[in-house]
Design goal:
With 295 residues, this protein is mainly α. Helix content is 72%, strand content 0%.
């Protein structure tokens, strides 16, 4: 029995030659051209920059971000975009694992984005946390984040948000640090408003301290005198007489030659049973000399 025709021909003429469509170096050139074309048509860096500017993502965009993250899990920008798009779905541990390193070591844009996402996550968790270790822990993490962020410049909207949260957490000095970045807000007015809020909550000592901090930042005599007296009176309203007299000495400053302020201090000292101190203020009032060392 004869073999198949193909085998018969192969046995007679040798192996059948294969057609060569392209050489290896041509394949490499084609691959490079395709990659170049993809980069030109779909510039990843520009797409990532565009996604940074978006506030919300549709399903298609979200799918694209997820695919980018699968392809480049170590790309910090893509990790940030994924965290922002899924901040409601990711737990706090996952957010911290992806973002805390960027808060400390990322580029300015990455630091800003990561800090903002963690700030919102910590604030929400703190608001829902019950009294106890969980609340103490969340407050400590939020304060640490805000203190670290205070060394950087922020857009005014974010600086105001950070300042409001700092005052809410009874951290007026940290709040003032952020308010200094807001051109339209005066620290003196912010401190007085914060003091009024504390006074409404019955926190007299804290309110008085806030009024006197505002007094130290007053730029004219009328405001300085008003806030000084407001702070001392707030201490006295809670029967904190020693604190009131001590604060009077510490925050008198350039009001030491102001006659209405000296009269106020003399009357206040007499009212709280400090006749020696009242006499000293009265002497300064009569002779209009520099205040001496406290008796």
């Amino acid at each position: 029995m004869l073999p198949a025709r193909s085998k018969r021909y192969a046995s007679v003429d040798g192996e059948i030659p294969r057609l060569v469509l392209t050489s290896p170096w041509q394949l490499i050139l084609i691959a490079l051209l395709v990659l170049t074309l993809l980069v030109v048509i779909f510039p990843r860096r520009r797409l990532v920059d565009t996604l940074y500017e978006q506030q919300g993502f549709d399903e298609l965009t979200l799918s694209y971000i997820q695919n980018l993250y699968r392809a480049e899990p170590n790309n910090s920008d893509v990790a940030l975009l994924l965290a922002r798009s899924q901040r409601g779905a990711l737990n706090l541990s996952s957010l911290e694992m992806n973002l805390l390193k960027l808060v400390a070591q990322g580029t300015p844009r990455q630091q800003q984005e990561a800090t903002q996402i963690l700030f919102e996550a910590y604030s929400q968790r703190l608001a829902s946390a019950k009294i106890g270790n969980e609340r103490v822990n969340m407050r400590a993490r939020l304060v640490a984040l805000m203190e670290q962020a205070s060394y950087h410049l922020w857009p005014e909207v974010m600086a105001q948000e950070f300042a409001a949260k700092a005052f809410e957490l009874d951290l007026p000095n940290l709040g003032l640090t952020y308010l200094q970045q807001v051109s339209q807000v005066k620290p003196m007015q912010a401190l007085e408003e914060y003091g009024n809020e504390l006074l409404g909550r019955g926190q007299y000592a804290e309110a008085a301290s806030s009024f006197l901090m505002a007094r130290d930042r007053a730029i004219n005599l009328v405001d300085a005198r008003r806030l000084f007296q407001k702070g001392i009176q707030t201490y006295m309203a809670d029967s904190l007489f020693k604190q009131a007299m001590q604060a009077g000495r510490e925050h008198l400053g350039d009001l030491k030659y102001d006659l209405p302020t000296l009269r106020f201090l003399a009357r206040s000292a007499m009212a709280v049973g400090e006749p020696v101190l009242a006499a000293e203020y009265a002497g300064q009032l009569v002779f209009h000399t520099e205040p001496s060392v406290s008796p």
